[in-house]
Amino acid sequence: MNMAITDGLALMPPAFAEGLDAWSSENGTAGSASYDGAVNAALVPADADFGTCLELSKLLSVQKLRAMVHTPIVPGCYLRIRARVKAVAGNLPSVRIAGYAMSGSGHVAGLIETGPEVALPTYGTVVTVEAIVGTGSRGGVDMPWGLAPAYGHFGLDLTGLNGGVVRIEDLVIEDITEAFLRDMMDWVDVRDYGAAGDGVTNDKAAFEAADAAAAGRSILVPEGTYFIGGSVTLTAPIRFVGTVVTPTEARFALRGSFDFPTYAAAFGDEMTGFKKALQALFGYTDHNALDLCGRRIEVTEPIDVKALSPDISSFSNRRVLRNGQFNVVVGPAWDDTTVTSQATYSTATPLTLTNVGNIANIPVGARVSGAGVGREVYVRAVNVAAGSLTLSQPFFGGSGTHSYTFTRYKYVLDFSGLAKLDRFNIDDIEFLCNGKASCILLAPSGEMFQIRDSYVVKPKDRAITSIGHGCQDLLVDRCQFLSNEGAMAATERSSIALNVNANDSKIRESRFVRFRHTMVLNGSGHLIVGNHWFQGDDLDAAPRLPGLIFCQPNVQSAVTGNYIDNSTIEWTNEYSANPDFGAEYSFGGLTVSGNTFVSIDAAPWFTWFSVKPYGSGHFIQGLSVANNVFKAIDGVVTRIDGVDTTFAALDNSRMRNVVFEANTFNGVTQMTVNPVSVQVDQASAQAVWTVAAGAYLPFGGWARNVGALVAEGPITNAAGGRINGMPYVTVEQGATKQLVTLTWQEAVKGRVHIRLRMDNPN
Predict the structure, then answer these.
(1) Cβ of 202: how many Cβ atoms within 10 Å?
(2) How many CB atoms lie within 10 A of CB 72?
(3) Listed residues 181, 212, 231: the one ending a domain
(4) In the list 356, 435, 520, 697, which could disulfide-bond 376, CB 3.0-4.6 Å?
(5) Where in 282-399 does DSSP place strands (E)?
(6) Each residue of 498-517: pLDDT tens digit?
(7) What is the C-alpha separation between 635 and 646, in angstroms, rounded?
(8) 248 lies in which domain range?
(9) Which residues span the membrane (predicted)?
(10) How many domains would you assign to the chain?
(11) Backbone angles phi, psi at 285, to 5 degrees
């Protein structure tokens, strides 16, 4: 920077040859005495050293020489005043650069206005005397004037003994701000600390030295390729013009600039930059969040988190990935891996497959399918030496040797290589899977994984997959999941939004559109609150599939305030190696309340709630379906509930604590109520009245208990006489055991109200 050049500032004082009336013997201010006609000043036209110069005799203790022009003082600008002087006769004086600081209102007092003194050693010896003036108090500045002065009158002083005669060359005033530029700039350059930038030399030490020297400034990485041969942590903010390369295992931690755009610039590639930033996030960078700053990342291959951090097997500190978009780029890296092998399953070791053929080619995270295998069963671990696989869930089909198919989907974010991951949060991220990739694969173990305020758009196979217990306390809040199969018939779809193997998931205020299944949940303690999922299609009178699937009989869960569209809540025990009822709890612990259930153009046999036991002897021992609205549009639905007897029926003799009440039915042929109150009208006198209320009872249940019986109006005999005696009731009558009989002491007629139920109340 040179303000004489860039801003056209006039810095140079006038030459002596232009007239001594421009040079003052006082302070240089207007009206002060000049050297024009002075007895002790004369121009010398042709000095051997100086050419035209001023010859000045020292008559005063401080003989002043000041230019009467205004030399501007500009903030951030540093001026050097320089003069060459020699003694020619008399006593030898000392010389110093001097100035007079002025503002618009006059002299600015209290400032240093002289530079260092230089003694003239001998006659004829040329001595250069100089001083630097500027607004800042920096090293090397002789006269730091601050911001008060607007200009100065500059020249020199002769001090020491009087009687000496000196000759003075024209003074020079020049802008030397560039000499201070390094300290004035807010960055340090890694090249100044030894960085080569040739892509070969290890510049790690140079980067660390630049970071140490920054002292509150930032680091500049200029054009070039800088090889960093090991892990490095830089505290100062950093800006990249050039790029860096590092070994895969080396962490590049930018504590002062920890965000995705900086990493993308650092590595010259979005994918590489994101991977290194994510690696650093797991490396204690003093940051618990990686901000993508609204940027979009073109993802060309699955991001294997374990491969990024080979020295980390588990991680349990809160980390957040936020504010950006991942866009999957089509390529072979997203192709599924499919292996078909024979293996042996034994119910004695329900989470293990043994004698697995071709095991070396079966990857962790592959989904297992085949006879006797439930939905969403995955390979949790592979032991090639033992020829065995660890499963996420048992098979229901019993022991035996069968052929199984192992399908490994490819995920944008793959955490499966970590043994455990706790408290990882994804916030305000959009995943554009483009029908080519699945989205998130959880670690085999972990707690409190959360995705919130995010979008998963068109996943190929799965949105969120758990292959173990990494879904414990899974949190999904205010997200939207959009299937890639929306145009297909519901029965032809294969994608699933999410599955859970562990307990206590909270799926809240999210929206799921047209997957084959929305949620497949094992475990208990789940809260499904305020969501909207719909799985319909554009076909007429079409079958519908389960949307929410509970795979554990005793779930201790609540489904509350959801909009459930064209799909069934299905309750199974498909993850039981011994699915026949034994000593365990049977189906129970489920509350379904305050939901809106809708079907559009569904087949009439469609039901919104279905129980599917995979073994015999099961029953319901705790279910509340209350305060819901059921509505069929463009067609009617016969009833809201059913039992899928593909494998077994429910044991109606053991039903307990089943409540269907305060629900609203629209377009539903038969309401489901338990306990149910029915009105019985007997027009002709009969000793035995038959009450047929079984159609109201859920799941084809038996009429097992009568809780109340009251007559409305008089009960009369055939002759019209009033009969005051009460009948006794007999339950579980008829071939289906859904009838109740009232036996009177004689043949009577009239009206009664009876409250009956298909279960024991406790």
Answers:
(1) 14
(2) 15
(3) 181
(4) 520
(5) 289-291, 296-299, 303-304, 314-315, 319-328, 337-345, 352-354, 367-369, 377-383, 388-391
(6) 999 999 999 999 999 999 99
(7) 26
(8) 186-328
(9) none
(10) 5
(11) -95, 10
